[in-house]
Amino acid sequence: MKQAIYAQCWDADQGVLSDDPRMERYSEHANLLGILTDTIPLEDQQGVMRTIIDKKVKLAPATIYFRFYYNRALVKTGLADLYLDTLGLWHDQLKLNLTTWAEKPEPSRSDCHAWGSSPNYEFLATVAGIMPASSGFATVRIAPALGELGSVDARMPHPKGMIEVKLRKVGKGLSAQISLPDGLTGTFEWGGKTISLKSGAQTVFVE
Length: 207
Prior knowledge:
Structural class: alpha+beta
Number of helices: 6
CATH topology of the largest domain: Maltose phosphorylase, domain 3
Distance between the termini: 43 Å
Number of domains: 3
Largest sheet: 4 strands, mixed
Strand order of the largest sheet: 3-4-8-9
Order of helices and strands: HEEHHHHHEEEEEEEE
CATH superfamily of the largest domain: Maltose phosphorylase, domain 3
Radius of gyration: 19 Å
Shape: globular
CATH architecture of the largest domain: Sandwich
Strand content: 25-35%
C-alpha cells in the first residue's frame, strides 16, 4: 500500500505527497502520516517536515486535534527542538480567554477537547524527553529537546515511583540531575551521546 501511494501521489516538483493521484489536493495530514508510516523514504522525511514547518508549499493545515501527529513527526525527523516554536495555536486560544482547549482554531468553542491537551503530553515526553524504552515501561529513555529553554524541571509518575529530572544548559553542554525509582534503569541521550542510567539519584553532564 505504501509503495502504491508513493508511486501515485509523490509530487517530485514540490517535494511532498499529494492527497490524490491527480495532484489536486495537498495537506499536512497526508505528509505527516507519510512520515510516520515511512511511506515517504527516510532520507526525504526531514525535508518534508521542514517544508511543513516553513510553509514552503500550500498545504491544508493540521489543526489542534491533529497536532499530536505533527509532534510525533517532529520527533521522528530529529526536529523536536522546534516543538516549543509550534505552540501558536495554543497561545491564540489564551488570547481568546478560552478556559479549556478547543478542537480547532477560530471559529470554534471552548470544547474541553482531549486532543487539544497534547502539550500536557509533549512537555514531559518531548521537552523533558521522558519516554518508555521497553514494554510496560520496564526501562526509560530520557532524550530532552529544550529548544531555546535554558532549564527544565520535570516529574513523571511511574509504576515503581517518581521519575525526576532537572536539566540545565551549561555553555554548549547539558547538566542533568536524574532520579529513577528503585528497579528502573534506562538511558540518557543528548547531543548524539547515550549514557546509561541506574536506579536512584545521579548527575550526568554531556558536552
